[in-house]
Amino acid sequence: MCGSFRNHQGKVQGVFGSYRDGQELYTRATSKKKDLFIIEGASHYDLYDKPEPVRQAVEKLDAFYKENL
């Protein structure tokens, strides 16, 4: 990845490795402008349908898209 890169993930680690994979993806991204947003108290699956974690992720994505698209 060489364009702007944003990764958001829940802080609560699950059994399938999405937290670890997200960390690795962020580390490997070669983008000059990259950001990692960790949502405290949320798991990967909470980011699908739990209102508060989703709200936090959408707020960050909205600002990121406005700046980079």
Q: Can you tell me about this structure?
A:
- This protein has helices at 18-28, 46-49, 51-68; strands at 5-10, 34-39.
- The chain has three helices and two strands.
- By secondary structure, it is an alpha+beta fold.
- It has one domain (5-68).
- The protein has a two-stranded parallel ribbon with strand order 1-2.
- 9% of the residues are buried.
- The protein is flat and about 30 Å long.
- The model has no long low-confidence stretch (mean pLDDT 88).
- This is Alpha/beta hydrolase.
- It comes from Clostridium tagluense.
- InterPro entries: AB_hydrolase_fold.
In a few lines, what is going on in this structure?
The chain is α+β, with helices and mostly antiparallel strands. The protein has helices spanning 18-28, 46-49, 51-68, and strands spanning 5-10, 34-39.
Label the overall shape: flat
> What is the strand content?
15-25%
Q: Give average pLDDT, whole number.
A: 88
Largest sheet: 2 strands, parallel
SSE run: EHEHH
How far is the N terminus from the C terminus? 15 Å
How many helices? The count is 3
Rg estimate, integer Å: 12 Å
* Helix/strand class: alpha+beta
Strand order of the largest sheet: 1-2
Helix content: 40-55%
**Could you name the ranges where pLDDT drops below 50 across 5 or more consecutive residues?**
none
Overall structural domain count: 1
The total strand number stands at: 2
Protein name: Alpha/beta hydrolase
InterPro entries: AB_hydrolase_fold (IPR029058)
